[in-house]
Specification:
Chain lengths: 527, 175
């Protein structure tokens, strides 16, 4: 086994968190190596320039690694969850929608508010994180407009909001009729040229990534900066074990070069694990040794526990007239947090966010329709006449919702995949049922002919992978401290979606980026 | 036309054309699938020659497709034959349906028909054109693009107070 030269900091994973930490540390002269099991995804590899882009979303660009089966992917078993993540430079920012809401302050104190199931206070506050949200926004480039009274003040957004289109205006009018909160949503998609990147042309294929760089994949934002600072980003490098020195401190990792099959050891003074809410606990469990038989950093038994990914109802309003829903970036142009905060009189704690999306393109619209003689008319009535929107709820952190190693399904290196156990809590089911009723009111106010809804989506779309190595103030009830350092392993930091204590009912990537910048500062402060 | 390494006999091609035309029959200016190039430019390119475990989307490889076509060959009533297939082999039918839809709606003739009949701005491949030409920029002066009377509030982190959730805890039988 060969051993490249030691470095100061080894980062495992190059997604939203790993990229931000690499940049921040390298700004201060820290020598950083980042190991990424996937490859670079080049602009020409995206399918946007082909009429077959919808088909490619089902295979090469599929969000579920079990469908995609790329060499860097690992198997994920689950009957109730549709897992979505990407293993490449940039992680899942390679193919996300870049919805960019922030957690609200109350989300950091759900232990104080109600404490149901595993709900606990975060060891930090919104106010601790606020400056990092701002810094992260400036690097990523956010469209939107400041001033939403439902959230703390934020600086002017880098570019104006996404265009509403016919469909966005229609829904805004409905919110006005109902007197509900709504606001032009923040999205990490630039609507004007910004920081050397070109403006979005609203092509609508964000789920296949963005070859233009208008959507803020970290390959377009943090990584160019980090590489200029001298960070070494090593691709096709699948980590199989985090290593410890004789004092029990993290001192590097053994990884497999996926091109050659060779095992190599990268030594470092400090290790930061940023492999997402599934990959991070997987690697900690894979790194079990005599001193840590249940997995690294797992004396609390909570590595892999409290998996959250938001519970959903996906809804479609259907209109009698054309509404151009196929136009526009897939980021949500509008959100409503009218029902975000806890009101126990509703019969549940927590709440939900309405995210107003866009309509379907041709093939997805056609797939669910009858075949044969009835198809054409059905297609004409649906395509260009519908808008998708979600009821995105906070899901309670539940001990029995977890990710564990799956030794029956192995990746291309022979390492165990993972299995997910997840179910919807009765509280969260009630939120969704309540949210769907409000969705019907919204559809009525918008003059929709019909509302189609999944109800509680099953299998649940798991694009937000949170909570599986939660941070906290007590080593018996958390995996890391407030600075992201593992309680059990000095010099091992964990920072990504797994760090979340509770999930709010908003998309997590802006919070992951903010946490990462703060984590880097805490590492620097402790150095 | 060059393809992925497998081909259809004339008889199988004729059956496939009948299958596709029965799945997606014409209406308005939409073309018959058999009048497009979707067999050569899509199906023969995207269906893998050999994927017996159905690992690759759409979980239909060349032998499986040819088996389906052989079973459907000679059917006088293709709609009835496909209805039977849908009931007896739903997974195979679904794979066939997906292949038909993704191939058909990617054809230039179909995209042109969508433009003519349903959505003038639609243009198939998302880039390089995008839809900036079809959407007005966000406009702060439009009363439907900013709330008339902004509403909503938040509580600073340290002001969060407990709610009475005991009855919810008991109702849901906290685990």
């Amino acid at each position: 086994m060969s051993s490249p030269l030691p470095t100061d900091v080894l980062i495992i994973g190059s997604g939203a968190a790993g990229a931000a930490i690499a940049w921040r540390l390298s700004e201060q002269g820290v020598r950083v190596v980042c190991l990424e099991q996937g490859p670079w995804v080049l602009p020409a590899e995206h399918p946007h320039y082909s009429n077959e882009w919808e088909f490619e979303l089902q295979r090469r660009w599929g969000r579920n690694p079990n469908v995609r089966q790329a060499p860097a992917d690992f198997p994920i078993s689950s009957t109730r969850v549709n897992p979505m993540l990407y293993n490449a430079v940039g992680g899942s920012t390679v193919h996300y929608n870049a919805h960019w809401p922030r957690l609200k302050p109350v989300d950091f104190r759900k232990g104080t508010e109600h404490g149901l199931e595993g709900s606990a206070d975060w060891p930090i506050s919104y106010e601790d994180l606020a400056p990092y949200y701002e810094q992260n926004d400036a690097i990523m480039g956010v469209s939107g407009i400041a001033g939403d009274p439902a959230n703390p003040a934020r600086s002017p957004r880098q570019t104006p909001p996404l265009p509403f289109g016919i469909h966005g205006r229609r829904i805004a009018e409905a919110f006005e009729r109902l007197g509900w909160h709504w606001w032009p949503a923040d999205n990490a998609i630039i609507t004007e040229d910004y920081d050397g990147r070109v403006a979005c042309v609203h092509c609508g294929s964000c789920r296949n990534g963005c070859p233009r760089g208008s959507l803020a994949t970290v390959t377009w934002t943090y990584w160019p900066r980090a590489l200029r600072n001298g960070v070494e980003l090593r691709t096709h490098a699948r980590v199989e074990q985090i290593t410890l020195d004789e004092q029990g401190r993290a001192n590097g990792a053994v990884y497999i070069n996926l091109r050659t099959g060779e095992r190599q050891q990268q030594r470092a003074s400090l290790v930061v694990l940023c492999a997402n809410g599934l990959g991070t606990p997987r690697l900690l469990l894979l790194s079990a040794n005599a001193e840590h038989p249940d997995g690294l950093a797992n004396s609390s038994g909570l590595v892999g526990r409290y998996l959250m990914h938001h519970a959903y109802a996906e809804n479609t309003m259907i209109f009698s007239e054309p509404i151009d829903g196929f136009t526009g970036a897939y980021g949500a142009p509008i959100l409503s947090q009218e029902f975000y905060d806890t009101d126990v009189e509703r019969g549940f704690v927590n709440g939900f966010t309405f995210q107003i999306g866009r309509g379907m393109t041709a093939s997805p619209a056609a797939l669910g329709l009858p075949w044969g003689a009835a198809h054409r008319d059905a297609f004409a009535q649906l395509f260009n006449h519908e808008i998708w929107f979600s009821v995105q709820t906070e899901d309670l952190p539940i001990y029995d919702n977890f990710v564990a190693l799956d030794r029956d399904h192995l990746d291309s290196s022979g390492l165990p995949g993972v299995t997910i156990n997840w179910d919807v809590h009765p509280n969260d089911r009630k939120i969704i049922e309540f949210g769907v009723e409000r969705a019907r009111e919204l559809a009525d106010a918008a003059g929709a002919l019909a509302l189609e809804t999944t109800g509680v989506a099953d299998p649940s779309p798991a694009w937000h992978l949170l909570g599986t190595c939660r941070m906290g103030n007590d080593p018996t009830t958390s995996v890391t401290d407030a600075d992201h350092q593992a309680w059990d392993v000095p010099n091992l930091y964990i920072c990504d979606g797994s760090s979340f204590v509770t999930g709010g009912s908003v998309n997590p990537t802006s919070t992951i980026g903010a946490l990462a910048l703060r984590c880097a500062d805490r590492i620097l402060a402790r150095a | 036309m060059a393809h992925s390494g497998w081909s259809l006999s004339d008889a199988s091609r004729a059956t496939l054309e009948r299958v596709l035309d029965a799945l997606l029959p014409p209406s308005g200016s939409f073309p018959l699938p058999s009048q497009t190039g979707m067999i050569d430019t899509f199906i023969l390119q995207r269906v893998p020659e050999n994927d017996p475990d159905g690992r690759l989307y759409p979980a239909l490889d060349a032998p499986a497709l040819q088996r389906l076509l052989a079973a459907l060959d000679g059917s006088d009533d293709m709609t009835a034959a496909l209805t039977d297939l849908e009931q007896t082999e739903p997974l195979a039918f679904t794979a066939l349906w997906r292949l038909a839809v993704y191939g058909y709606y990617a054809q230039p003739e179909t995209i042109a028909a969508i433009q003519r009949d349903l959505a003038p701005a639609y243009h198939g491949a998302p880039l390089p054109l995008g839809y900036a030409h079809a959407m007005a920029p966000w406009d702060a002066n439009d009363p439907l693009q900013m709330p008339r009377e902004p509403r909503g509030s938040f509580i600073p982190t340290d002001h969060v107070k407990p709610v009475d959730a005991l009855w919810l805890r008991e109702r849901d039988g906290e685990r």
